[in-house]
Amino acid sequence: MSLAPIRASDALKKKLAKLGLHTEADLLVHLPLRYEDETRITELARAFTGEAVQLELRVLNNEIQFKPRRQMVVRACDDSGEITLRFFSFYPNQQAALSEGSRVRVFGEVRGGFFGLEMVHPRFHKIAEGDPLPAEMTPIYPSTAGLATSALQKLIGRALADGDLSETLPDEIRQRLKLPGLARSIHFLHRPPPGTDVDTLHARNHPAWRRVKFDEVLAQQLSLRRAYLARREQGAPVLVAQDDLGARLLDRLPFGLTGAQLRAMAEIAGDLAQPYPMQRLLQGDVGAGKTIVAALAACQTISAGWQAAFMAPTEILAEQHYLKLKDWLEPLGVRVAWLSGSLKSKAKREQLAATAADAQLVVGTHALIQDGVDFARLGLAIVDEQHRFGVAQRLALRKKGSNPHQLMMSATPIPRTLAMSYYADLDVTVLDELPPGRTPIKTRLVADNRRQDVVGFVKKHVEEGRQAYWVCPLIEESEALQLQTAQETYEQLFVDLPGLTVGLVHGRLKADEKQAVMAAFAAGDIDVLVATTVIEVGVDVPNASLMVIEHAERFGLSQLHQLRGRVGRGQYESSCVLIYAGPLGEIARQRLKIIFEHTDGFEIARQDLQIRGPGEFVGARQSGVPLLRYADLEMDADLVEMAREVAEEMLTEHPDLAEKHLQRWLGAREELLKS
């Protein structure tokens, strides 16, 4: 596969680079966003309002008007009628081209105006009578500021004439999958012939599009699968338990494991005993019990004579894990260390010394990956809420040991097609069963003009002996968003709820202040906790059974589901009240409808994927995995399944073609995947 650089001026190359176009091969797979049919002329009498058409016109007159604003107004006609062409920004050469008597072809959307039919800023060019029409539809490509469509069309035309479009799919595979040839498909999509159904092209369900989408997904699967196999070539500590630490932990717990937790533990235990590094994603809905599974994995590591590290993205979450793991493991003789950015110098020195010596489990925030943190014998790295960490941060933790095993956890359920596509380099374990005792949560939608009703509901709830969260999206006033802020809400509730203790926690408090407020809430000394999303994950207060979310329309579905999951953890019936401000946009309305109708995190995630696409789901991982440009994970789930099977087959039986396929679709970007 030739990766020859694009032949163009330096200025043009810079613009192309913004689109990820560096080589001739990149140009070949830079496909049109849409098409305009300039292969036929429509008579004015047959042009309908709202329709994009090409007209062939004679200019009747051209004048510059200044009211209501400066504009060039051109009257033109064909044999069937007249039309007005309006240009609010124009150059002298355009004015000259549209002089009286000129013959032009114009392309644009026809609409009704005050003086009859008109087009605003149509694309046009001057012609002589009898000039032939184009033989193909006009492709409109994704572009960037300062890069003319015509320049892209010219470069891509040259690449089509000279470029390498040889097959990378063996004939037997292509025929088995009933896919058309690549060269034919690429040529067709860049240059569709007259008469092609434009709707089929725009819907991207033409066989040529199917072939391109399959090749794109196959490149992703090949790359991730190759990264997976490469990791298996690396050595890692073999962690086989030498005592019954895990069994003793289970004996101490006041609950038994679910079937899903037992299955997950068996998979992880098997991985840790292998001589290559585990790379497993443990995902489960809010409250599915991921922490105990991680604790048992740590027990196996410690029993084998190695250390485990547990990293979480926020101080509140990390400390919750630390206190819980310390409570579980220290009575069993395990030394648990704590590292965070807020530790005072003396305490930090002590914890660093323990990490480098005899600590068996080290829990912390990003502080775990800073310079100066040395592990004595790191065998397992556990990363909670892994999508909140970047590729580089997860790598930094791995480098703290001699290629330790890695267990990543996520309480944001990942839809199956997304897991198959973007996480194909990982083994994925799903906790699809909630522990007994999780009470159902009732979700209520309330308009913000009924806030006082909600305040009354909170008061009644607390008088019954329980506690409540009240979550706000911002800390201080923003002129742009005019949202109710945590500070204002705290002050207002302080007035509205006399006799009740109201607390406030947000990201700008110092760590020890945050910890003090959270400890007071957990102890029952605070009745209503006003908070920003710092309490989104990990906070576990069984007596808190009411969650109020202010400006719910401003939150994403994943955040709403996570916040709702902070309640329903005890024996009481729990509620989540979503206060929204109207009028609602279409996406906000969809989100609130989904969260109201569903409690299953996987179904919520599936519908969220339809609304948002994969980019935000993948989170920081997207810096390591190129997003799909053409394939749609919901529409093309069958292609992902097919590509997974073909990737295995090609890596084993056709490695040269697999390499060529990767070069065509990913080129240098494949390096990003090796993290």
Form type? globular
CATH class of the largest domain: Alpha Beta
Count the E strands.
Answer: 22
Measured as a percent range, the helix fraction is: 25-40%
What's the total helix number?
A: 24
* Total domain count: 4
**What is the annotated CATH architecture of the largest domain?**
3-Layer(aba) Sandwich
**Spatial order of the strands forming the largest sheet:** 6-7-4-3-2-5-8
Rg, Cα atoms, Å: 31 Å
**Stretches with pLDDT under 50, minimum 5 residues:** 620-624, 671-675
Output the CATH homologous superfamily of the largest domain. Answer: P-loop containing nucleotide triphosphate hydrolases
Taken as a percent bin, the fraction of beta residues is 15-25%
Average per-residue pLDDT, rounded, comes to: 87
**How would you describe the oligomerization state of the chains in this entry?**
single chain
How would a crystallographer describe the biggest sheet?
7 strands, mixed
Ends distance: 24 Å
Which secondary-structure class do the elements indicate?
alpha/beta
Could you say what the CATH topology of the largest domain is called? Rossmann fold
What does this structure look like?
With 675 residues, the protein is α/β, with parallel strands linked by helices. It folds into four domains: 91 residues, no CATH class; 92 residues, Beta Barrel (OB fold (Dihydrolipoamide Acetyltransferase, E2P)); 187 residues, Rossmann fold; 158 residues, P-loop containing nucleotide triphosphate hydrolases (Rossmann fold, 3-Layer(aba) Sandwich), CATH 3.40.50.300. Helices cover 38% and strands 18% of the residues. Strand 6 and strand 7 form a beta hairpin. Helix 8 crosses helix 24. It is globular and about 95 Å long. The C terminus is likely disordered. Pfam families: DEAD, Helicase_C, RecG_dom3_C, RecG_wedge. Its EC number is 5.6.2.4.
